[in-house]
Each structure stands twice: as structure tokens, then as C-alpha cells.
Amino acid sequence: MADDLLRYRSQFPILERSTYLISNSLGAMPQAVYEALKGYADIWATRGVRAWEERWWMLAAQVGDEIGALMNAPPGSVSTHQNVTTCQAVVASCFDFSGKRNKVVYCDLNFPSVMYFWEAQQACGARVQMVPTDDGITVPTERLLDAIDDRTLLVPVSHVIFRSAYIQDAKAIIEKRLHSREANFLTVLERSVFLNTLLYRKGISWTRLLSDLEKVMPPNVRVLNIRPYVSGKNQITLDLTVGAESPDAVNPLYTALESSPLFGGLFQPTFQPPTQAEPLYRYRVTVNYAQKL
Which H/E stretch holds residue 221? Predict the structure, then answer.
């Protein structure tokens, strides 16, 4: 049986000539990036410094919401930055290393630039303890836990080690904080490469979801964003943003959603007219989805 996801392979040019296994560092570039970068340059060329206020200031928040949709995170709760090291620097800026609890514990399989950052915090008073690996693949959980004591302030660890894909026992680290009288630290858990597990736990099949949407989507309407929500009764609701070149093009979508046995309970759509930056008519549609979890 053919894998439905293979149809997306042609959208990534590098996959035509290689097998790409380093998306944790830099993902394979989608073909659509060419057009997106041209759109960015066009805004810069035509709007100049006004582009910041009109569009660019909010890009990080908008991207954060799109990433948050993968985790069922509420809008406005995901902050995006250039890389993981910058994210951890933002977290570190909230803490004072001048007190007795100033210890930072992590392992030597962290991403190099993350380790460089925490080592540099020694100049601010941090006491850094790096837990070594024996085999370059795994980190002994007990050794990491033993390093955590009543003077530990932060434990910045990766859930999945980037070098080996080894999964650290994050639950054990967090439970030591919750159940130990000595340890009361903050766990900075880097989970950027662990979203697939979160999606699995939510129980939503994205392959099935995209396939079902394709059946009801008119050819001149395209999906711009999908945000699924799961209720306590395992009812899935989809918050969709779709785009079309004309308002009339979206009407067949409404009809298809309402008549499909997989979708229903269509809520009143909202509408945004085209702009210079966003040339499509954009419609936000909320609909129930009958996929079984």
C-alpha cells in the first residue's frame, strides 16, 4: 500500500537527488519558499520601513500560532525565535545567578551552541555542572539525577539528543523536582524535535486528515492553516484558514463540508479581503471532524 505522504515529496527539490535525514538542523526547503521570499522582497521594495508596522512585527507571533496548532496550544502561547540557543537565552534572562541556588546541570550531548551559552553564564555567577556520557549516545539518567541538588536552579536538557536520537527520561527529571524536598529547579526541556510524539498522543492522524480535506476541497481553494482542537469527549474541531482568488470559489467548500459524513456543524465563517501582502481572499472556517481517536 502506497504511503499517502509520498505525494508531497515533489514539493521539496532536494529530495529529487538525495535522502534527507537532518531536518532537526535545517529542514528540506519547500518549493514554495521561492515565491514566499519573493513576496517578502516585494513588500520590502514597495513598503520600505513601513513593512515593519504593517506586517513584519507580527510574523513571529503568527508563525508561533501555526506551530502551536500542531500541539493544540492556545493562540498567543508559542513564542518563536531564531534557534534553540536564543530561546534558552530568553529563559536564562529571567533568572539571577548571584544567590546560593545558582547551579545549572546539563549533559555533554546538548547541542554545542546551547552548551556554549550556559558555560558563558559562569561570568554572571552560574555554577555549571556538565554530566558526561560514556558512549556518546546515551546519558545515564541516574547520573543526571544525582547531579541535581538543593542548589540547582536550572536543568536545560533536550528530550531527544540531536546526535543519536536517544530519548532522555524527562519524566524522571521533572518528578525529582516535584517530589524531592531538596530539588526545586526549573527544567528547560527542549522538545522541538519531539512534536511527532505529541501529535501521536493527541491521536490525530494528519495523513488521514489531509486526505479527507482533499476530498472536499475545491481545486481553486487552498488550505493556509489547520488548527485542530480535541474536546474532553474526543470530539475533534478544525479551525481552518483557506484562501481563494474570488469569494464565489469558497461556496462549494461550504456545501461539501455540510454534506460530507466526515464534517459537520459548520460555524459562521469569518472573512478577510485581499491586501498587497496577502493577495487571496482569506476565510476562517470552524467545523467538526469525525475522525475516530
Answer: strand 221-230
Report which DSSP code applies to 158: E
The per-residue pLDDT for range 14-52, each reduced to its tens digit, is 999 999 988 877 889 999 999 999 999 999 999 999 999
Query: Would you say 209 and 226 are in contact if contact means Cβ atoms under 8 Å apart?
Result: yes
pLDDT in tens, 184-196: 556 565 554 444 4
In a 13 Å sphere around the CA of 197, the CA atoms on its Cβ side amount to 7
- 129, amino acid identity: Q
Instruction: Find the radius of gyration of the CA atoms of the chain.
Output: 23
Domains of the chain with CATH codes: 4-15+23-54 (no CATH), 84-192 (3.40.640.10), 203-289 (3.30.70.2830)
Strands 103-107 and 127-131: parallel
Chain segment 242-264, per-residue pLDDT in tens: 988 888 889 999 999 989 999 98
Whole-model pTM: value is 0.57
d(CA 204, CA 229): 10
Degrees to nearest 5, angle at CA 280 with 291 and 239: 25
